[in-house]
């Protein structure tokens, strides 16, 4: 049940209707890793600069993340700034400063190479492939991507899609990748590129799972207050992969349950800024909300 994530660990500036924060813990690997850590131990491969605050390292370690693959190199940590519009559905990227992330070359420590479950968060598709090449036949590998790579590294992206088993992608990016405005057809087209399992994230509208068993829809949890949507997608992927890894199975029911765990973790993530909601979250909070999801959708 060993789970490996490779991706960004970042310092974020966030502006949202509920407030603004600066230089807070962010990054896809942070959100994914912490969300997944409620289910299984997580191995992290990422890079930070020498400005990365020690308390963030302590927090990640306190969640049981194995940071043996977290490279610390001279320079500045990856920084990203985002501003949400009033609806929270739209966000503008204010800045992206790659810093040490620019030369990130994911080195998988020998002790991580037997990882059964691998998540390739949003990084250069060629680097995602080098990660897979360094692992020994994981049971399940999934990846994320974004518009930047769809536009700028299409060929590399297609090569990576051909070798992963799962893709977790935003609705707009699924449309962009395939040229299909209809999401069912977009998922069909993506599955022809390689991934057997395609999960399309639709923000406040939930997520759709497409696989050999057809389609499954998970709603987003209806929350009275959303403070910061940053990292919801990565937390969804962390909850999903963590649940799959802890269950150790990939059958129809395991995938569907994992979709709900993903939705549960995403719903907690957005309740506070940065990863703050995860600081005092417990496994029993997760189980209570999982049951609330059941009631939400049973008829
Ligand atoms: P999400 O809200 O799921 O898109 O994830 C947001 C997180 O991804 C933030 O914490 C950012 O630090 C991180 N992020 C933003 N842009 C990038 C990028 N180009 N590559 C890697 N991580 C990024």
Give the arrangement of secondary structure elements.
Elements: E1 3-6, E2 10-16, E3 19-26, H1 28-36, E4 42-48, H2 54-62, E5 65-72, E6 79-84, E7 91-97, E8 117-120, H3 125-134, E9 140-143, H4 147-152, H5 154-161, E10 166-170, H6 171-178, H7 183-193, E11 197-201, E12 207-211, E13 214-218, H8 232-247, H9 252-269, H10 283-297
Parallel strand pairs: 1-4, 1-8, 2-6, 4-5, 8-9, 9-10, 10-11
Antiparallel strand pairs: 2-3, 6-7, 11-12, 12-13
Helix pairs in contact: 1-8, 3-5, 6-7, 8-9, 9-10
Adenosine monophosphate (AMP) is lined by residues 8, 10, 12, 26-28, 80, 96, 122, 230-234.
Please tell me the overall pLDDT: 97
List low-confidence stretches. Answer: none
CATH architecture: 3-Layer(aba) Sandwich
What would you call the shape? globular
For the terminal residues, how far apart are their CA atoms?
Answer: 34 Å
**How large is the share of residues in beta strands?**
25-35%
> How many H/I helical runs?
10
What do these coordinates show?
The chain has helices at residues 28-36, 54-62, 125-134, 147-152, 154-161, 171-178, 183-193, 232-247, 252-269, 283-297; strands spanning 3-6, 10-16, 19-26, 42-48, 65-72, 79-84, 91-97, 117-120, 140-143, 166-170, 197-201, 207-211, 214-218. Helix 1 packs parallel to helix 8, helix 6 (171-178) crosses helix 7 (183-193) and helix 8 (232-247) packs antiparallel against helix 9. With 299 residues, it is an alpha/beta fold. It contains ten helices and 13 strands. The protein starts with a strand and ends with a helix. Strand 6 and strand 7 (91-97) form a beta hairpin. The strands form two sheets. Strands 5-4-1-8-9-10-11-12-13 form a nine-stranded mixed β-sheet, with helices on both faces. Strands 3-2-6-7 form a four-stranded mixed β-sheet. Residues 8, 10, 12, 26-28, 80, 96, 122, 230-234 line the site of adenosine monophosphate (AMP).
